[in-house]
Amino acid sequence: MKLKPYIAIFMTLWAVCGMSQKASRGDQAFFEYDYKTAIAEYLEEKRKSHLSPQQALNLAEAYFRERQYKQAADQYVRIYREDSVMTNHHFNKMLQALSKSSEKERVQAFLSTRSSQLSDELLENASFNDELLEDTATGETAYTIFPANGNSPQADFSPAFYGKDRLLFSSSRPQDSKDTYIPTGEAFTDIYVAALQSGGQLGNPNPLNSLPPLKYHEATPYYSESLQGVFYVRSNSEDGALTYNPKGKNSLALVLSKRNGQLQTLLRDPGISFYYPFYEEATGRLYFAAEFQQGYGGTDLYYVVTNQGLIMSAPVNLGPRINTPGNEIAPFLVDGSLFFSSDVFYGLGGMDIYKAEIQGDGTYSIPANLGPAINTEQDEFGFILRKSAGGGFEGYFASNRPGGRGSDDIYGFTTTQKPGLKTLVVSGQVVSSEDAGVQQARVRLLDEADRVVRETYTRQNGAFRIEIPWQENMRLSIDKPRYTSAALGGPGQDSIISGVPARIALRSVDEVVRSVRERQELKAEKFYFGRGSSRLTDEIRTALQEPLQALRDFPGLHIRIEAHTDSRGSEQANLSLSRQRAEAIRDYLVENGIDAERIEGIEGFGESQLQNHCEDGVYCLEILHRQNERYPLVVTNYESL
Length: 641
Hints:
alpha+beta, five-stranded antiparallel beta sheet, four-stranded antiparallel beta sheet, 13 helices, about 20% helix, disordered N terminus
């Protein structure tokens, strides 16, 4: 009931199969949703000849639908090994079947064979949720869950709040105004309304008669208080008959029915069905599920910008952090959180409910599985939530878990806290002084005891992202060989703000050194001592601030201090004076926090290495004498930094 196989209609098997030959008995059963018969027929056909690649996939899907997961996994693996071009969507199905047949170790093995073709976000999502579901110590929301007493022996799903005291939902229960949908043997779906009673139970449900009559599918409603209308999907039809595209497919359009009786068709395509609308009142965005060719797998989540419900933009895919090679449906946004359902392989069952937090820059946190307190090995979908008048939260969802009355049932729940795991999202960009991204910088997230909780490296553009279950008082450390280091979150440092990207600047060692005669020296402004003096003046101290800061920023730098004088004065006096000046520079650096062991030597050369012709007895201008007075701080370990 939850996905397009239930509410999409096909006119002919020929068009659905996309085959040029006559459909087989296995195909006929498969596309009539008679999976048990399809398995038997496909096996008989396989015994007599061979199955086409599409029929082989159909057989795997039929096993899966019949919950014969071991057989489904074996069939998918056989196809994968014979067909290296298996789509990511079917690859997800294979991993699902392996997970359901208790072969999770093989999931990781197959995942590694295809990692280069899968998005980084998908792999990160999978790793995060695997750890989350295995960690029994992670705090899980406590729910009180109850079946709604308005459920029928048929399918009831897609609940939606209808004001404060009523609930809308979809149902295939029989009624005179609806034809029978042949693939399921139940009625075409309709939208029902029920009063909310004490304890969250439903009063007697009735069809929502304010909608324009249609004897075909009407489903997945969402009520907008500000627009005074109901968004929902309905079968494409004309003059009371279903309409089809050239391939024989009848699709579902997304419409808005106003209380004044006006019906607006918002999204319609002959070959594409739309599902599960959600209208965000604050932004005017209309979210929905659809299967466009350029998506990430099966059904993806999208939004369009609207003006009072009228479409003003092309559909925007929510991206690979949310959408996967599987199917994503039923978006619901509340208090900065996006709830939705997905059948991606790393869940607990078929469709699981996930929550992602919307970050300050509009991106999403890793969708976190709501866990076994609400998700089962079956399907959970159509999750809605609001604050309860008595405190805490209340909501509804649909599931086909055992013990229900129909094929899908609506369940209510209450909880004292907002469902879903709270996470800490630390992201940003590491840049150089020239504002270029610094790649392969190490980024570590540390706890209060300075233990490394997560470690990652920046991408080519300098971007990084770490997400963990929420912890207080975390600290971020960033470093890279030959660069300065940086930190966030410690005493006297900028705070880590979850969901708000940080911009962190690192300086390269090449910014503080210069190459002079095939060696590296720390950059410093030119300075001069008084004639015959080794006393540091304020001017000299100011000039030494640049190399002093470089030594602080790069604690791995080691130097040798050299001192050279001009030729004025005796050679022996200049040799002694240069030594004294080098010692004065060394003492100043040590007094200002530089470890003496990092200063590997001091050398006074006196006038022995003049850089021009101003030798003893040669008349020179002052500017030429000053060319010979110099105090290079030579980096001794530049190559090994």
